[in-house]
Amino acid sequence: MTEILAVLLLLSLAGCALVYGRKRKMYRVIDQMLDEILDGDEISVSDIREGEISALASKARRIREKVELGIADAEAEKEQVKSLISNMSHQLKTPLAGLMMYRELLEDENLSSRQRRAFLNKMRQQSEKIDWILQSLFKMVNLEQGAVVFEAEPLPIRQTIQDAVSAVWDKADQKGITIITEPVPERILYHNRKWTAEVLVNLLENAVKYTDSGGEIRIRLNSLEIYTQIDIQDTGMGISREEQTEIFKRFYRSPRVENLEGSGIGLYLSRLILEKEKGYMTVDSLPGEGSTFSVFLQNCQKEGAEL
User: Fold this and answer.
1) Which of 37, 81, 204, 214 has the greatest number of C-beta atoms within 10 Å?
2) Rama region for 197: left / alpha / beta (φ>0; ψ in -120 to 50; rest)
3) Least confident of 49-58, 178-187, 195-204, 251-260
């Protein structure tokens, strides 16, 4: 009987030693994998075979991949913020310098009333430019971050186009540029009137800016099966094929127009707005032959009477 008890005791001790040894091994493996995750190293334990250690190795690899993805996202966001700050500084530098210069000129007590009015008008223009840049930047960032929520709904497009044309009519008239709006069907399209008008205003202002005096801007609609295409065609300087994908990027400015006013925000902002409305935009252009920017908005009805 004593011998049997001794054997059982030995077996029990052996079992405890085995369990303790397995736990020690498991602890060492877990500790090793955690060190590899913290150091950014590959997980050296194989996850091919079945068993607890293999399952742990598989989960450890997934944890490491998520950590690396989080680090990459954080770095990308950091670079994006740095780029945004750099571009904001660049965009605001010129009008701020103009404001400071005109302020110094206005301190001259010998200025005539006419000169003073002229400098004050220049200051007003620079202030308006700064305000426009800041407003555009805020809209752009809020749209990118999803902080701006606007409702798109079935609305007549004719009034939206009229609002946009009215906003740029004076600028075009002062430059001697004719805006021709072909007969617009009273079509119901999925859009937000305020934000879509801003898209069209951006395109029309660009057309006025890059078209010489005496030129022409033409607006027309083309009804498709799913979308309605709104074309804004100008007789301006045109855009090279190589740049036609670049111009929709944030802050892009062609070397050909760097001496003209502009921020490189308008087209990028317009694209963001259209994406929110489930629409899109394209461009067709040749240098010296003008450009046609096409806005595509979803149809809400197939028939429309031409008015």
Assistant:
1) 204
2) alpha
3) 49-58
Per the CB < 8 A criterion, the answer to whether 218 and 233 are in contact is yes
Residue 259 to residue 122: CA distance in whole angstroms: 18
Contact between 47 and 59 (Cβ < 8 Å): no
Residue 139 φ/ψ, nearest 5 degrees: -60, -45
The answer to whether residue 51 scores a pLDDT higher than 70 is no
Q: Which of 160, 129, 174, 173 is nearest to 232 (CA)?
A: 160
Give yes or no for residue 203 having a pLDDT over 90. Answer: yes
The answer to whether residue 23 scores a pLDDT higher than 70 is no
Q: Within 13 Å of residue 23, how many CA atoms lie on the same side as its CB?
A: 6
Distance CA 177, CA 165 (A): 13
3-state secondary structure of 189: strand
Q: What average pLDDT is seen over the chain?
A: 76
The strand order across the sheet containing 216-223 reads: 178-181, 216-223, 227-234, 291-298, 280-285
Q: Which pLDDT score is estimated for 306? A: 40
Compute the average pLDDT of residues 19-26: 58
- Please state, in angstroms and rounded to a whole number, the distance separating the CA atoms of residues 81 and 20: 52
Residue 7, both tokens: 């054997």
